[in-house]
Design goal:
Elements: E1 3-7, E2 19-23, E3 29-34, H1 40-49, H2 52-59, H3 68-75, E4 82-91, E5 94-105, E6 111-118, H4 127-141, E7 146-152, H5 156-165, E8 168-172, E9 175-184
Parallel strand pairs: 6-7
Antiparallel strand pairs: 1-2, 2-3, 3-4, 4-5, 5-6, 7-9, 8-9
Helix pairs in contact: 1-3
Length: 186
C-alpha cells in the first residue's frame, strides 16, 4: 500500500516524536504526525472542507462552522491522556490536512475512545488505514489495552475499515442507530 519513513517515537507525553512519511500507491507523499496546538487553522480548514455527510458520520450529528472552543479541544491536547495524528499533503507549497485519527482516555488510561475522519476527496486511498495503524501503534507503545469507537450504524466506510483491521463490531444496546467498534491491543 505504501512505503514508510519513520521518526521513532521516544517520549510518552509529547507530540514531537510522532512523525512518519508515507508514500501512497499513486506516489503521493503523506506526512502523519501528532497534532499541535498551532494546527488550529489546519484543523478548522479540514473540518470546514468536509461534506455534511462526512461531518455527520464523524461527529454523530450535524455541526456547522467549527467554534474556536471545538478547534482548541481538538488541537491543544494533554498528550498524557490523548493523542491525535493528522495526515497532511503539500499543496501549493503548504501543508493541507487530509485526515485525522485520535483517541482520548479517562482515568483508566489503558482504554481509549478513538475516532477517525478522512477528507472526502482523499477517501479510498489508504489514508484511513495508515492513520489507524499508526494510532494503534502509538496506543500499544503507551501500554494501552483497548481502543473503541462509537459510530453511526450506517457508516459503511468505518465498517469496511474495521473489518480490514480486524476490529470487532457490535450494536450499541442503548442505541440501535450506533455501533461500537472495539480492538484489544494486547
Amino acid at each position: 500500500m505504501s512505503r514508510t519513513e519513520a521518526t521513532a517515537p521516544t517520549a510518552r507525553d509529547s507530540a514531537e516524536p510522532y512523525c512518519w512519511r508515507e508514500t501512497l500507491d499513486n506516489g503521493t507523499v503523506v506526512t502523519i504526525r501528532a497534532i499541535r496546538k498551532e494546527d488550529g487553522p489546519l484543523e478548522r480548514d479540514f473540518i470546514t472542507g468536509l461534506s455534511p455527510e462526512t461531518r455527520r458520520m464523524r461527529f454523530l450529528g450535524q455541526i456547522g462552522e467549527p467554534s474556536d472552543a471545538l478547534i482548541k479541544s481538538l488541537t491543544d491536547l494533554d498528550f498524557s491522556h490523548d493523542m491525535a495524528l493528522i495526515a497532511t499533503v503539500e499543496q501549493r507549497g503548504r501543508p493541507v490536512e487530509v485526515g485525522v485519527s485520535r483517541y482520548a482516555t479517562g482515568e483508566d488510561r489503558s482504554v481509549g475512545e478513538c475516532a477517525i475522519v478522512v477528507a472526502d476527496d482523499w477517501q479510498h486511498r489508504g489514508i484511513g488505514t495508515l492513520l489507524m495503524q499508526r494510532l494503534i501503534e502509538v496506543a500499544r507503545g503507551r501500554g494501552m489495552k483497548r481502543l473503541f469507537s462509537i459510530d453511526d450504524a450506517e457508516n459503511a466506510q468505518m465498517r469496511e475499515l474495521a473489518e480490514h483491521l480486524g476490529i470487532k463490531r457490535h450494536f450499541d444496546p442503548g442505541n440501535p442507530h450506533e455501533v461500537v467498534h472495539s480492538l484489544d491491543l494486547d
